[in-house]
Amino acid sequence: MIRVALPTTASAIPRSISTSPGETISKNHEEEVKRVWRKADAVCFDVDSTVCQDEGIDELAAYLGVGEAVANVTRTAMNGNARFRDALAARLQVMKPNHEQLEQFVNISKPKLTVGIRELVSRLHARGTHVYLVSGGFRRLILPVAELLGIEKSRIYANEILFDKFGKYHGFDTSELTSDSGSKETGKPAVIALLKKMYNYKTVVMVGDGATDVEASPPADAFIGFGGNVIREGVKARAKWYVTDFDVLRKDLDHDESDIDDE
Question: Which residues are catalytic?
Answer without folding.
Answer: 46, 48
